Amino acid sequence: MTDDPMKLGLDDAALAVHPTVFAADALAGKRVLVSGGAGGIGRAVAWLAGRCGAELILTGRDAGKLDSAVQAMTAAGLQVQGHVVDIRKPETVADLFAGPVTEAGGIDLLVNSAGGQFPQAAIDFSAKGWNAVIDNNLNGTWHMMQAAARHWRDTSRPGSIVNIVVVVEHGLYGVAHTIAARSGVIGVSRAVAVEWAPLGIRVNCIAPGAIETPGWRVYAPEARATYARSNPMMRAGTTWDIAESVIWVGGTSGGYVTGETINVAGGSQLWGETWTTGRPDWFQPG
Ligand SMILES: CCCCCCCCCCC/C=C/C(=O)SCCNC(=O)CCNC(=O)[C@H](O)C(C)(C)COP(=O)(O)OP(=O)(O)OC[C@H]1O[C@@H](n2cnc3c(N)ncnc32)[C@H](O)[C@@H]1OP(=O)(O)O
Ligand SMILES: NC(=O)C1=CN([C@@H]2O[C@H](COP(=O)(O)OP(=O)(O)OC[C@H]3O[C@@H](n4cnc5c(N)ncnc54)[C@H](OP(=O)(O)O)[C@@H]3O)[C@@H](O)[C@H]2O)C=CC1
C-alpha cells in the first residue's frame, strides 16, 4: 500500500485497461449515472460501464476531481459528462434530473457511490457529526433514489438502482453512524424494491469490504494497515471487484434480482475484525 493517501487504489491508467468479464457492448445504448463518480469506487464503476459502451454522467462535489475523471475517460474515447451535485441538497438533485439527465435522453442505471464517514468512538459523536453522516449517506442516497424513480415513472421507462453501502452484519467499529445510515439504505432499498417493481425499477445494494481507495485517507495509517487482514482472504479488494459486481447486478445480467444486498467483502461479513479507531484494550488477545 502506498504512503500517499491520494494514490490509494487503481488509477485511471489501470482502470482503462483492467481485464473484464464483460463484453465491450454489454451496456451499448445505455446511459449510466454514477454519484461519487470521480471517487475510488465510483470512478471504477464509471470506467467499466463506459468500456462496456454506456454513456456516462458523473456527479460529485469537487469540480477539479470531476474534471480529471472526465478528461481521462474522454481521452480514452468514452462518452462522459460531469456535474457538481451535492446529494444532500434535494433541490440540486432535482436540477440534475430536470437538466442534464433529461437533456441527455434519460438514464437506465443509477449507481449511488457518493458517501463517506469519519472514524470516531460512537460515545464521542457530536450531534453535528452524527447528522452529517446520516444526511450524507441515508438522506443523500434517498434523494437520488427518489429522483431517479420519479424520472423513470414520468418517462415510462424501466430502471435499475445500485446503492453502495457497507457490510452491516457485524461490527465495523468506530463508524456506528455509517452503520446506522447504511442499514437505513438497505432497509429502504428492500421496501421500494417491492413498491417500485410495478414501475419496472430494480433496487439492489452492494456492500464492499475493505477496498483500497483515496477515501481511506480519513483513517490513520496504522488503522489502514490492518484492513487487508480483516477478512478470511487476508487481502483488500480492488475497486474493480466492486465495479464488476455493480455492473452484474445493475445490468441485464441481474435482471431477475431485486431487493438484495450483496457482500463483496472477501468474507468479512463472516470473520474478521475491523477497528477503524484501533482495537481497545478490552479486545486485545490474552
Ligand atoms: C464487518 C465489516 C467488514 C468490512 C471491512 C471494511 C474495512 C474498511 C474500513 C473502512 C470502511 C469504510 C471505508 C470507506 O467508506 S472509505 C471511503 C469513503 N470516503 C470517505 O469517508 C470520505 C471522507 N469523509 C467525509 O467526507 C466526512 O466524514 C463526511 C462524510 C462527514 C463529510 O461531510 P461534511 O462535509 O458535512 O463534514 P464536515 O467535514 O463539515 O464535518 C461535519 C461534522 O462532522 C464531524 N466530523 C467530521 N470529521 C470528523 C472527524 N474526523 N472526527 C470527528 N468528528 C468529525 C464534526 O462534528 C463536523 O463538524 P465540525 O467541523 O463543526 O466539528
Ligand atoms: N473503500 C472502502 O473500503 C469502502 C467504501 N465504502 C463506500 O463506498 C462508497 C465509495 O467510497 P470510496 O470510493 O472508497 O470513497 P471516495 O471518498 O474515494 O469516494 C466517495 C465519493 O463520494 C463523493 N461524495 C461524498 N459526499 C458527497 C455528497 N454529499 N454529494 C456528492 N458527492 C459526495 C465524493 O466526491 P467529492 O470528493 O467530489 O465530494 C467522493 O468522490 C462510499 O459510500 C463508501 O463509504 C463502503 C465500504 C468500504
Lateral arrangement of strands in the main beta sheet: 3-2-1-4-5-7-8
Q: Assign the structural class, choosing from mainly alpha, mainly beta, alpha/beta, alpha+beta, or little secondary structure.
A: alpha/beta
Spatial extent as radius of gyration: 18 Å
Helix content: 25-40%
Strand content: 5-15%
InterPro entries: NAD(P)-bd_dom_sf, Peroxisomal_t2-enoyl-CoA_red, SDR_fam
GO biological process, one term: fatty acid biosynthetic process
GO molecular function: trans-2-enoyl-CoA reductase (NADPH) activity
Enzyme class: oxidoreductase
SSE topology:
Blueprint: H1 12-17, E1 31-35, H2 40-51, E2 55-60, H3 63-75, E3 80-84, H4 90-104, E4 109-112, H5 127-155, E5 159-164, E6 172-173, H6 176-195, E7 201-208, H7 221-227, H8 239-250, E8 261-264, E9 274-275
Parallel strand pairs: 1-2, 1-4, 2-3, 4-5, 5-7, 6-9, 7-8
Helix pairs in contact: 2-8, 4-5, 5-6
Bound molecules: ligand L4XM7KOE and NADPH dihydro-nicotinamide-adenine-dinucleotide phosphate (NDP).
